[in-house]
Amino acid sequence: MHPTLLTLFPAALRSVLERIAGEAVQTLEEIRIRENRPLEIGYGSRSAFVRPDGSLTDDYRSAFTPDKEECRAFLERVTNHSLYAVEEELRRGYVTVPGGHRIGLAGRTVLDKGSVAHLRDIAGFNVRIARARVGFGAQVLPGLLDLQARTIRHTLIVSPPQQGKTTLIRDLARCISAGEWHHPRALGWRGRKVGIVDERSEIAACERGVPTFDLGPRCDVLDACPKAEGVMMMVRSLSPEVIAVDEIGRPEDAAALNEAIHAGVRVLATAHAASIADVFARPVLAQLAADGVFGAYVLLSRSGGQVEHRIVSAEEAAMEAAGRTRMRVGAVPRDAPLPVVTQPAPVTVKTRPMPAIRSPDSRALGDEDHA
C-alpha cells in the first residue's frame, strides 16, 4: 500500500493494515471500515476479514473491529480536519485523497428540499485503491481506432462498479496522448491532444494541478471540475482532439458531449452498466446510443481475478438491445462465472457520420496526414 495513503489511518488501524501480506496487499482494491464492525478488504476477485495480526479470515467474529474513536480520527485525517472544506464532496458521498484514492462514506443524510445537502454521523468508509495498469489500454485500443481519421471512434466503456473502467480510460488516454496505437496500420501516427475532465480526481490524481499518474505528453486535465462544464471549457480554450470523462449519465453530460462531437472532438467516456441492454435501459445513455453518438462500446467483466473485455460496434449494440428481454442478466458478483448468452436477431441501426479531426498542427503538415 502507498505510504501516503497509510498515513491517513490512525495508529491502531494502520498497524493492522501494515501486517497484511502476500497476494492480498499486492492486489488490494478496497478497505471497508465500519464503526464497531469487522474490518474487511477486497482484493483480486475475493474479500476477507482482517484479524488484528493482519492475517485474513472468513470468520468475521475474529476480525479487528475499529471503534468510534478510530473512525472519528480517520474522518478527521481524510477531511484534513475540516468538514466544511469538503462539503460538496460530502454531499456526493465520497472524498478523494492524494493519489486518486476515493473514499466512500456512509452515515446519516441531511436533506434540503428533498435533496441531499450534507452527510453527518459518518460511521462507514470504503477506501478504493487507485492503481495504474500501464499496458491495459494496449489490449483494447486497436479495436477502437478510426483508421481513416487516424484517431479513435467515439467510445463508451461500460461495466458494473469496480471492474476497471477508470483504470482503462486512464491508460487509453496515455496511449492516445503518447501515440502508442498498437496497430500495424497506425505506424507513424502522432499522439492526439487529450483533454481529461476529472470530476472525481480519480483519473489523473492531480496534486496542485499536476497529474500524479502518467497520462502521456499531450494531455491536459481539468481537476475536480463538473463534467458538463468541464467539457465546454475544454472545447473553448484547450483545443483537445479527444476528450475523456468518467461516469456519464446525467442529461447535462449528454448535452456537453454532443457539443464536443459537433466541434470535431472525439469522445472517450465511461458509464455504469452491466450489459448493452442496461445501456439502452438508462434514459440518457439510451438517447445517446439511439442518436448514433458512440461508434464503439467496450464491455468489461472480471472472471477469476482477470479483467476481460469485449468490443461491440454500434450496429452490434443495437442488435443486442433488440434482444434485451432474453439477454438481460444484470450485474453478478465478480467471482461468479460469466453467463452464456445467445445472439439476437439482426435489426436496423441508425449510424452517425464522424466529423473530421480539427488539429492545427496536423493542418500545418498538409492533407496527406488525414489520408
| DSSP summary: helix tally | 13
Radius of gyration: 22 Å
- CATH fold-level topology of the largest domain: Rossmann fold
Shape: globular
User: What share of residues are in beta strands?
Assistant: 25-35%
Biggest sheet character: 7 strands, antiparallel
Distance between the termini: 47 Å
Which strands sit side by side, in order, in the main sheet? Answer: 4-3-2-1-7-6-5
Name of the CATH architecture of the largest domain: 3-Layer(aba) Sandwich
Helix content: 25-40%
Which ranges are low-confidence, i.e. pLDDT below 50, for 5 or more consecutive residues? 324-331, 341-351, 362-371
The count of domains is 2
Domain AAA+ ATPase: 151-300
Keywords: ATP-binding, Nucleotide-binding
Biased composition (Basic and acidic residues): 360-371
Region (Disordered): 351-371
List the helices and strands and how they pair.
Layout: H1 3-6, H2 11-18, H3 23-26, E1 28-34, E2 40-43, E3 46-50, E4 56-57, H4 68-78, H5 87-92, E5 94-97, E6 101-112, E7 115-128, E8 145-146, E9 151-152, E10 155-159, H6 165-178, E11 194-198, E12 219-223, H7 227-237, E13 242-245, H8 251-262, E14 266-272, H9 276-281, H10 283-290, E15 296-303, E16 306-313, H11 314-322, H12 324-327, H13 360-365
Characteristics:
371 residues; seven-stranded antiparallel beta sheet; single chain; Beta-Lactamase; seven-stranded mixed beta sheet; disordered C terminus; 28% helix; alpha/beta; globular
